[in-house]
């Protein structure tokens, strides 16, 4: 079992009745038409925050929560990416070695022509994971980064969208009182 420490003190509603299986599969968190964000762990929460900001600016984001990365719902992912034509993977791991690589593999083995634009992957910077808070704040992507990448994918790289404030996830979510 993998979990992110920023989730420890958060409360969630029990929505297991919406899942096909409590331990396996994927969950459609939000329907949208312009872009699919496939997210894991705390990045699901950041994707939801980003989708709210983007919707205020006319961009409709579909979010898929990979609550299981070993038994994900490929049909849900393919159906969503076929609909939107664009895919962003937001993960709390290194993009080159984890979920992002698997999502791209799924699309490439199925039919890469369902994409209208290259996929984008967001994850940790390709360095060892820091423990100092100031370095950690720069290390993880956040709502600011997700909105910027999504706007670039939908509007264009030189978009003029106002971005949410750059804010540390450890400051936004309840503070973890663990070893770091």
Short key terms for the protein model shown above:
alpha/beta; five-stranded mixed beta sheet
Name of the CATH architecture: 3-Layer(aba) Sandwich
User: What's the average pLDDT?
Assistant: 84
Listing every helix as H and every strand as E from the N terminus to the C terminus, the arrangement reads EEHEHEHEHHH
* DSSP summary, beta strand count: 5
SS-based class: alpha/beta
How many distinct domains?
1
* Total DSSP helices: 6
Helix content: 25-40%
Q: Sheet with the most strands?
A: 5 strands, mixed
Q: Briefly, what CATH class?
A: Alpha Beta
pLDDT < 50 runs, ≥5 residues:
none
Separation of the first and last Cα atoms: 20 Å
Radius of gyration: 16 Å
The percentage of residues in β strands lies in 15-25%
As for the CATH topology, it is: Rossmann fold
Gross geometry: globular
Give me the side-by-side strand order of the main sheet: 1-3-2-4-5
Secondary structure elements and pairings:
Elements (H helix, E strand, L loop, with lengths): L26 E4 L4 E5 L2 H15 L4 E5 L8 H11 L2 E8 L4 H12 L9 E5 L8 H7 L3 H12 L14 H4 L8
Parallel strand pairs: 2-3, 2-4, 4-5
Antiparallel strand pairs: 1-3
Helix pairs in contact: 1-5, 2-3
Quick summary of this structure?
This protein has 180 residues and is α/β, with parallel strands linked by helices.
Kindly describe this structure.
β4, α3 (99-110) and β5 (120-124) form a beta-alpha-beta unit. With 180 residues, the chain is α/β, with parallel strands linked by helices. The chain has helices at residues 42-56, 74-84, 99-110, 133-139, 143-154, 169-172; strands at 27-30, 35-39, 61-65, 87-94, 120-124. Strands 1-3-2-4-5 form a 5-stranded mixed beta sheet, sandwiched between helices. The protein has a single domain (21-172), classed as Rossmann fold (3-Layer(aba) Sandwich), CATH 3.40.50.920.
């Amino acid at each position: 079992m993998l979990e992110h420490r920023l989730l420890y003190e958060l409360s969630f509603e029990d929505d297991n009745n919406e899942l096909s299986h409590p331990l396996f599969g994927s969950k459609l968190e939000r329907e949208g038409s312009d872009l699919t964000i496939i997210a894991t762990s705390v990045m699901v929460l950041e994707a939801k925050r980003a989708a709210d900001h983007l919707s205020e600016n006319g961009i409709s984001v579909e979010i898929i929560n990979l609550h299981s990365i070993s038994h994900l719902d490929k049909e849900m992912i393919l159906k969503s990416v076929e609909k939107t034509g664009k895919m962003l993977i937001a993960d709390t791991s290194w993009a080159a070695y984890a979920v992002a690589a698997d999502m791209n593999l799924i699309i490439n083995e199925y039919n890469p022509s369902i994409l209208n634009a290259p996929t984008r992957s967001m994850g940790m910077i390709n360095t060892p994971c820091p423990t100092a808070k100031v370095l950690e704040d720069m290390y993880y992507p956040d709502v600011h980064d997700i909105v910027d990448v999504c706007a670039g994918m939908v509007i264009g790289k030189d978009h003029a969208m106002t971005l949410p404030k750059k804010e540390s996830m450890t400051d936004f979510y309840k503070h973890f009182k663990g070893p770091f």
